[in-house]
Amino acid sequence: MASVALTNLDPASRAAARGWSDLTIRNMFIIPTLVFLIVFNIFPLIYSLGYSFTNFAANRSEPWQFVGLQNYRELLTDDHIWSNFVITAKYVIVSVAGQMIVGFGLALLLNRSFPMKGLITTLLLLPMMMSAAVVGLFWQLLYSPSWGPINYVFGLGDFAWLSNPDSALYAVAITDIWMWSPFVMLLSLAGLSAVPQHLYEAAAIDRASWWYTFTRITLPLVSPILLIALIFRTMEAFKTFDIAYTMTTQPTAELIAIRLYKQAFQQWDTGKSCALAYIVLIMVLAITNLYVKYLNKVKER
Amino acid sequence: MAAVRTSSEVALNRIAIVAVLVATLIFLAPIYWIASTAFKPKELAVSVPPTVLFEPEVTPFIRLFTKRVQMQKTVDPQVYEAAPWWEKRIYDGGERVLKVGKDVQLSQYPDRFMNSLIVAIVSTVLAVGMGTFTAYGFSRFKIAGEADLLFFILSTRMLPPVVVAIPMFLMYRMVGLNDSHIGLIILYIAFNLSFSVWLMKGFMDEIPKEYEEAALVDGYTRMQAFFRIVLPEAATGIAATAVFCFITAWNEYAFALIMTNRRAQTAPPFIPSQIGSGLPDWTTIAAGTFLFLLPVAIFTFLLRNHLLRGVTFGAIRK
To answer: Are residues B77 and B173 in the same domain?
Structure first.
């Protein structure tokens, strides 16, 4: 510190004498992005907050009226909406639990050296990079009761996965597990490879059982990263639209995002759908907050 | 690893590797099914039992790119003989290719594919460009409320598309941006910008500050140091971020479904709309899906060392 004061070589101040000041550059670099996000994300949300207190319908030209909290009151007492939330909760639990188990299991299997490990890991990651809408569409063929390979391989006869009200939601969840287990696997692998090897060696010397090593060394050290995977996938599953929308039309698989889409763009109940959008938005932001908190925690390590 | 390995450990290791191979086969099976259906004769796509091995043909791709109608009677043998090989494949299926004069009428697929390319490329260039500047700003300068601003930026990424789409649809309708490339590009920039800022900030943080400081001492201005020292150092990061943004825009479905229907429609909402009623022609749908997924598969291999960073917004590096 003392030498800086003596020689006055603080680069920032010297640079400031030439060209633009750091302050100008900082503002030039950051403000356009913030303005863009405010104009195209925050402003529309304020706009729709306004509409959520009206009975506006975008496909009719008659003037709308201010209805106060009526939309919110109706939504929160609407059994249909509640059932959409229950369906969504079921979907989130099944698909995220499946992804955590399959993804972490795959990571445990992959966490050793063997030939072509890199290639196999990359191949396993392919599903999550692909378009959920387009791949989901194709799963219709895989699930087909008349010529689908899934029913043939498992000998399920003509079981109609996607048009059976009891199984449609779970069929979509299975596809989602196929798509997103690789995500959990990728994060888990990073967590597993960060566990210091000498802990395992010490455990081996102590003749610790596999189970003891797993629950006392592996799990505690990997759990922060698993938690991130869990929160992120929960948030994404809660927002699911594409995959369920292209795979099935069963009302028993109508997730909240699909309900919102139908209400806004098929029934054109714009005011009410703005209100529903806000209810969904607040829930998503709560999970985002949690996610960023844990993300920053892992980052500090 | 140096510890003595017992025979049971070796056996366990072998079982694990076999399990990995089996799991890989299961995970790749749906992708194989898409790829193989794209090269199947029509009747084999819906055969019982399902066909795994067959003689591949490119007819589904010919059907994908042409407009066709069912023929009432069989084709005139002379016309058939005079037709090019690919047109014969269509005649073989009992259909004929629609033409205007001598020109073959193309299906909508190439159009939709081009729309996807235009929207994904333009939005990626702009989102990564803006993101790189902003990331540098956050990485190098003191900013009041930095953590809150970064949270705000990330939170825009987490907004459910349908929630944002409702007001955007109404606003676009007012200014005439519905079903336009620009409208979709703006939405995709907004969607990818936050991602690009977070990911690029991770890459920027890794470039030692000393590089620029040395340049500043040598008489560079801050801008010169940024363009000549920092940007070349960040090239790998910029490329990785760009590929991620491209894939996200390429795959995006909800905005495209709501905001476009004809002129600017991209491939993701278009491909499912081809199912129609009655018995779908899965080979042609598979051909379209195959071409659509191919760039993503290639990019995944190029990105393999950056995937972890990408899916965690740059928080976890390795």
So the answer is: no
Confidence of residue A7 (pLDDT cuts 50, 70, 90): very low
Give a yes or no: residue B291 inside a domain.
yes
Please give the ipTM for the structure prediction.
0.91
In a domain, B1, yes or no: no
Q: Helix, strand or coil for residue B70?
A: strand
The answer, yes or no, to whether the previous bond of A63 is cis (omega within 30 of 0) is no
Residues B135 and B260 both lie in one domain: yes
Residue B316 lies in a domain: no
pLDDT tops 60 at residue B4? no
**CB contact A147 to B (< 8 Å):** yes
User: With contact defined as beta carbons under 8 Å apart, do B60 and B286 qualify?
Assistant: yes
Residue A78 DSSP SS3 = coil
Q: Which of B226, B253, B293 sits opposite A242 (nearest CB)?
A: B253
Closest CB from A15, A132, A148 relative to B253: A132
Q: Do B168 and B257 fall within a single domain?
A: yes
Residues B100, B121 within the same domain: no
- B313 within domain boundaries: no
For residue A183, what are the contacts with CB-CB under 8 A and spacing of at least 6?
A99, A103, A128, A229, A232, A233, B311
Whether the CB-CB separation of A103 and B6 falls below 8 Å is answered with no
Rounded Cα distance, B293 and A128, in Å: 12
Same domain flag for B159 and B230? yes
Identify from B162, B252, B279 which residue to disrupt to test chain A contact, counting A C-beta atoms within 10 A and taking the largest count.
B162
Structure confidence at residue B9 (pLDDT): 78
**Same domain as B243, residue B96:** no
Quote the tokens at residue A138.
Answer: 């194709």
Domain shared by B63 and B116, yes or no: no
Residues B16 and B113 in one domain: no
Measured between CB atoms, does A279 come within 8 Å of chain B?
Answer: no
Q: Which one is predicted more confidently, B70 or B266?
A: B266
Task: Count the domains in chain B.
Answer: 3
Show the domain range for B26: 7-38
- Between positions 174 and 193 of A, the ones with CB within 8 A of B are 178, 182-183, 186-187, 190
- The tokens describing B267, both together, are 């491939």
Query: What's the mean pLDDT in A18-38?
Result: 91
- pTM value is 0.92
Interface of A with B in 71-90 (CB under 8 A): none
pLDDT digits (tens, 9 = 90+) for B148-167: 999 999 999 999 999 999 99
